[in-house]
Predict the structure.
Amino acid sequence: MNELLIAEKLVKSFPRPGGGRDMAVAEVSFAIASGEALGLVGESGSGKSTVAGLVTRLIEPDRGRIILAGKDITGARGHRLRRGAYRKMQMVFQNPLASFNPRRTLGSSIAEPLLNQGHSKKEAAAKVCALLEECGLPGGCARKYPHEVSGGQCQQAAIARALAVGPELLICDEATSALDVTLQAQIMELLGRLKKRGLSFLFICHNLALVQDFCDRTAVMQAGRIVEQGRTADILASPAHEYTQRLIEAAL
Ligand SMILES: Nc1ncnc2c1ncn2[C@@H]1O[C@H](COP(=O)(O)OP(=O)(O)OP(=O)(O)O)[C@@H](O)[C@H]1O
Ligand SMILES: [Mg+2]
């Protein structure tokens, strides 16, 4: 199998205010092949965002391994992480406004990783324009500040920034949840185009209809564990786990 990302028995607990520890993620394992979208669903607090944080190395695991493009990145830090893993995977969050610096134009935020990679200002400006257009925005949006564009446009710009480093994997944590249905459809259309181009996705989403349309496979989390995973069509048509059945019923 051509696995781009392998998460192996990831464990993460957090200290409980009164003492002891709460298990947020317990022995979670999954793999994402090149060009594949894996959906991660489950009720609030089931550990989905913690999994995203572990995979992107924003959160340190207690145990387990993360293998990206054949390389064990579990212990990667600083320079090595930035040069390697950071370029291969990027995260898109729920609130696009919060992911931009309000005092910088969208263009300057998107250009930052390009300048860090050694592109000239002129090259970076041209690339920013191309990235914005790829994400459905006019190149002129580069001069706007985050508060000067709509929520949907801001999310399009956040995706443009994520794409600037040329990632192979996008981790979307409720990337469309803050948007109205029309904007949601626009973003899903954009993600669909990126998927056709060969990008892989870890797609965290409360909306089972979006997961059904977009994800090749789906993993269902409950209380820190993956209770079932498989082809999305199979899981939604005949859920093996009682929790998944309830999740599907709740979505109808
Ligand atoms: N930094 C933290 N410190 C303490 N507990 C945390 C921390 N981050 C997450 N948790 C706990 O870990 C559990 C899983 O949280 P997580 O945010 O991963 O859930 P989620 O599935 O993303 O939920 P939602 O659908 O609401 O976004 C929750 O019980 C949460 O309270
Ligand atoms: Mg979450």
Remarks:
- The CA atoms of residues 44 and 206 lie 9 Å apart.
- Residues 14, 22, 24, 42, 44-50 surround adenosine-5'-triphosphate (ligand 1) (CB under 6 Å).
